[in-house]
Structure formats: structure tokens, C-alpha cells
Write a structure and sequence with these properties.
The chain is mostly helical. The protein has 17 helices and two strands. The protein has a two-stranded antiparallel sheet. The termini are far apart.
């Protein structure tokens, strides 16, 4: 390895650390600043780790300390308690250190989301480094766009399960990439198992990533040899059993407990809705909610209707994927949304061209792309189903597990477009000038977006108390 390569490696490590630290500090700043109950669903979720912290046990779904009166239900119906347990541990650590006020304990609980977001950025850096090896400027441009996406930072600053699901999908994708490089072995299998465990105990909308992980895992032991399909059954079962044991041993207690306390409802969804129907306020009863199902709409009518908020499901979901903060009421200027929409569209178009012209014969890579795509589609469809049948919630946070897929596709697409542009730009000096100019502009816009989002969020906090 040459001295120049060593210097480049050291420089990349320094930049990686700067990005991680900057993200962490911003997420902590927002976590400290956001008032109680000003983020979507946070109050109901906060009650769970508070209960565990105070009583040293998991709450029953009907415990009054965790039940929201308008709904007559609680998130304790669900077995998705990983974030709450870790949050309670952080509250305990804070209490030991003398931070015992309500605000301080809440901030301790929010540190779960801060760390999940930061670790997701860490894996994003590792993933993009493996996928974009020859163009670090494009890599860092996409990383900055992704990790400082205002909605992502916001999810990383208050108590929610969405950011935990993002971490899970990112870890699973990292395991897929490792397996593409050198096959499945113990290290890769353990990383995949960790991702599956986190996913299983985070959010049902992210379960498509578990399904596709199974597909990627099995396909890793299938080879074409001498014009015949051969399956390495020995290692398939060896590592399959290891993953299964790790996953089942970590998650089985929570689902068995849910089955017992919910009288046969392992997932807790039916019990939650039944409690809302039986004791919730009239407007919160599932049968009275203005859902697409109750209104007799079909799915297409649901996602295109402007009945609820003046814009359709697609508009609100995409905009709130970029930035709608507060209690779904804090926006930034339209031009910032247009910037992200433009970057995403260019990247995705570039990705389609890349697959069609460059990688259409690479079966394993195509399978990887297909798994990313299907995982994202399943996530989006589950969000649509929730809005259709349970509660109309066109919120980007429900589809946020697609974050890593979107960034991978956009980064690879933009990289390929740049490769095509290089065929027309003959002079190396001109290429470098254009490349650096684009990266500097991107950095400036990312900073402007974060400043705008922070200004709007803080203004909302000051207005609301």
C-alpha cells in the first residue's frame, strides 16, 4: 500500500468521525430541546420505559400508568419492547448518576433513539465505503444527504420505534453485503441475527426485511457448477441453525408473554384495537375512524384522496420522509423539498440505467437489488394497509426502514451518471472542478436545510411552550 493510499485512508477515517460526532451532537441537541409530548406518539411510548424503570418489571397492557385514556389502550399490548427496556436501563444509569428529574429521565430515554440513529449512520458509512470504492466525494455527498435528512435526525431525537427499525434494516443490509463479498460465515451470520432480533422487536412494518434476509441467506448457498444447480446444505443448515437459535432465544420470551397476557394474540394488534373499541372515546373507536376501509374506498382512492389534509397520502408520506417535524406540523421551505426530490429522482433514474446497461448479467448483485426493492415495497404496502384499515396516518416515519435502500440506490445511480458524464468530459482538471463544485454546493444546501429545520423546530417549541 502506497503512502498516498495510507493518507487517504486516514483522511477518510477522520471525515467519518467528524460526520458521526456532528450527527450525534445534533441529535442530542434536539433530544434535549424537544418538550414532552410534542413528537408523534412519544408520550404513550415514554410511559413504557418509565414504568419499567420505576417498577423493575414489564407492564401489563391494562396497567393504568401506561394506558392512554382517549384510546383505552397502551403500547404494552405489543411484544415490541426492546427500545423500552434499553430506555429503562438508560434511565437507571441516569438515576445512579444523580439525574432524577422528569426531564432528565426523559432525555435518558431518548438516548436510545440518539444511539440508534448514530449507529445507523456508522453502518451507512461502512456500506457506502464497500459499494462506492472509487469516488469518495460522491460517497460523502450521499452520506451527508442521508444522515442529515431532517426527518432522520428528528427520529433520532425522541422516543420511537421507527428509528430502531431503521437500525435493524441497516444492519441486515450490511450483513447481506458482507455475504456478497465473502459468503456466509460465523461473523456474517451473527451480524444478520443481530439485525433480525432488533427488527423483530422494533416495528411490524419492517418485517419485510426479515423475509428478504431469509431469501438472501438461502441464495448464498446456491451455486451453478458444471451447468447444474448445487446447494451447500451443510453450511446452509449450520449457519441457519446458529441464526435461528440466536434469534429465537432473544425474541421468544416477548412473543410468548404477549400470547399469554393477550389471551392468544401473540402480536397484540387485535387486543390493542379491541381495547380501543371497548373503552376508547367515540372518535378513537376503530369503527368510527375515517379510514379508507370504513369509508368504502379502494386502495388507489385512499392514496390519491385529498380528503384528510388537503394533500394525498403520497405527498404527505414523501414530504414527511424528508421533513415534517413537531406533531406533524413543522415544515421547511418548498425549495428544500424540491432539492431532495430532485436528487432522489436523478439517483433512482441513474440506478435503473445502471442495472439495464452495466449489471443486468450479475445475478447475485441483481438479487441483492431485488431484495432491497422488495423489502422497501413491503414496508410501503404495510403502511398503506395501516392507513386503509386502522388509522389514516400518511407519515414518512412508518416507511423509514427504506432509508438505507433509498440511499444505496441513489448513491449507485449518481455514481453511474457521473461515470457516463466522464465519457464526455475529457480533461481531468475540469472533472475535478465540476466534482468539487457539486460536492461543495451539496454541503452548503445540506447545512441550509438543517439550519432551516432547526430554526422551524425551535420556533415551534417557543410558540408551544
Amino acid at each position: 500500500m502506497s503512502q498516498e493510499q495510507i493518507r487517504k485512508m486516514h483522511l477518510e477515517k477522520i471525515i467519518d468521525c467528524i460526520i458521526l460526532i456532528s450527527f450525534f451532537l445534533l441529535a442530542v441537541y434536539w433530544a434535549v430541546s424537544i418538550p414532552r409530548a410534542s413528537a408523534p406518539d412519544e408520550l404513550m411510548r415514554e410511559w413504557i420505559p418509565e414504568y419499567i424503570f420505576r417498577h423493575h418489571k414489564l407492564p401489563l397492557p391494562t396497567d393504568t400508568e401506561v394506558v392512554a385514556k382517549p384510546f383505552n389502550a397502551s403500547y404494552a399490548y405489543y411484544p415490541l419492547l426492546l427500545g423500552s427496556i434499553v430506555g429503562a436501563m438508560f434511565m437507571k444509569i441516569a438515576a445512579i448518576l444523580g439525574f432524577t428529574s422528569e426531564v432528565q429521565l426523559r432525555i435518558a430515554g431518548r438516548m436510545v433513539s440518539v444511539l440508534c440513529g448514530t449507529i445507523s449512520v456508522f453502518f451507512l458509512l461502512k456500506i457506502t465505503k464497500k459499494l462506492i470504492k472509487k469516488n469518495s466525494l460522491i460517497r460523502y455527498g450521499i452520506v451527508l444527504l442521508g444522515c442529515f435528512l431532517p426527518q432522520f435526525v428528528y427520529l433520532s431525537s425522541y422516543i420511537n420505534n421507527d428509528i430502531i427499525a431503521v437500525l435493524a434494516s441497516t444492519i441486515m443490509v450490511y450483513a447481506w453485503i458482507l455475504a456478497l463479498e465473502d459468503g456466509w460465515h460465523l461473523k456474517n451470520a451473527i451480524i444478520l441475527a443481530i439485525g433480525i432480533v432488533i427488527c423483530a422487536l422494533s416495528y411490524y412494518n419492517a418485517y419485510g426485511w426479515i423475509l428478504m434476509s431469509i431469501l438472501i441467506f438461502i441464495s448464498g448457498f446456491i451455486r451453478r457448477q458444471d451447468k447444474r444447480i448445487r446447494i451447500d446444505y451443510k453450511n446452509l443448515f449450520r449457519y441457519g441453525i446458529i441464526i435461528s437459535i440466536l434469534v429465537i432465544s432473544c425474541i421468544s420470551y416477548f412473543f410468548i408473554r404477549s400470547y399469554v397476557v393477550n389471551h392468544g394474540d401473540m402480536l397484540g394488534m387485535k387486543s390493542f384495537l379491541s381495547a380501543c373499541e371497548e373503552g376508547g372515546s367515540e372518535e378513537q373507536k376503530p369503527s368510527n375512524r375515517e379510514t379508507g376501509k370504513n369509508l368504502g374506498m379502494n386502495y388507489l382512492e385512499l392514496i390519491l384522496s385529498t380528503r384528510w389534509y388537503g394533500h394525498n397520502w403520497i405527498w404527505y408520506t414523501f414530504r414527511s420522509f424528508i421533513c415534517i417535524l413537531g406533531s406533524f406540523d413543522v415544515f421547511i421551505a418548498d425549495q428544500y423539498y424540491y432539492f431532495y426530490e430532485g436528487i432522489f429522482c436523478i439517483g433512482l433514474i441513474g440506478m435503473l440505467i445502471r442495472i439495464g446497461k452495466k449489471e443486468k448479467k450479475n445475478t447475485r448483485l441483481l438479487l441483492f437489488y431485488l431484495a432491497l426493492f422488495l423489502s422497501s415495497i413491503i414496508t410501503i404496502l404495510l403502511s398503506i394497509q395501516y392507513s386503509y384499515a386502522t388509522d389514516y396516518q400518511p407519515q414518512g416515519r412508518y416507511v423509514y426502514p427504506i432509508w438505507i435502500c433509498l440511499l444505496i440506490f441513489v448513491s449507485l445511480g449518481i455514481q453511474y451518471i457521473w461515470e457516463l458524464c466522464n465519457q464526455w468530459i475529457k480533461k481531468d482538471t475540469l472533472r475535478k472542478i465540476i466534482k468539487y463544485f457539486i460536492c461543495i454546493v451539496t454541503l452548503i444546501i445540506v447545512i441550509l436545510v438543517i439550519v432551516a429545520a432547526n430554526t422551524a423546530l425551535m420556533a415551534s417549541i417557543n410558540i408551544n411552550g
